[in-house]
Task: inverse folding
């Protein structure tokens, strides 16, 4: 079966389609990026006065390293993932992949944080839920694009 020009243009449009799930995902990603930058700067500036004893099981002696890591590992990927959605010429599959990776990195960050610091803070489960929401929105977006392409 050969594809016609109309089929190709239709698939091209669907390949770049942004749904409600995509735009909601972008908003969540921007929120997480903003929170990670704010949190990273607060850690670097020691604005929260957190105990350095909590860093005992980490390679860090001060909160500067974790603050930089938070911005590098969470904020930067979330900004990139949001940009993959906002730039409409980027294929949807890259935005979906960005959302999956951003959400997964947030969950992994919290798991690693709990394992290394061995300290519980109420925002940790909140951020795990946010990461899972990102993964869910990515999958919802993917399902919407695939379902639309099938019609």
Result:
């Amino acid at each position: 079966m050969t594809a016609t020009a109309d089929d190709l243009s239709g698939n091209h449009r669907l390949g770049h389609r942004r749904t409600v799930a995509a735009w909601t995902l972008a908003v969540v990603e921007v929120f997480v990026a903003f929170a990670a930058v704010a949190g990273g700067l607060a850690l670097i500036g020691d604005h929260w006065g957190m105990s350095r004893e909590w860093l005992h099981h980490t390679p860090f002696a001060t909160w500067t390293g974790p603050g930089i890591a938070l911005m590098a590992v969470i904020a930067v990927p979330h900004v990139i993932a949001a940009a993959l959605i906002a730039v409409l010429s980027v294929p949807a599959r890259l935005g979906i992949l960005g959302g999956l990776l951003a959400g997964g990195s947030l969950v992994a960050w919290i798991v690693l944080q709990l394992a290394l610091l061995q300290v519980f803070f109420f925002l940790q489960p909140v951020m795990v839920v946010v990461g899972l929401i990102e993964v869910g929105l990515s999958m919802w977006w993917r399902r919407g694009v695939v379902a639309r392409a099938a019609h």
Remarks:
- The longest helix spans residues 123-150.
- The chain has five helices and no strands.
- The helical segments are 5-15, 20-44, 64-86, 92-117, 123-150.
- The chain has a mean pLDDT of 89.
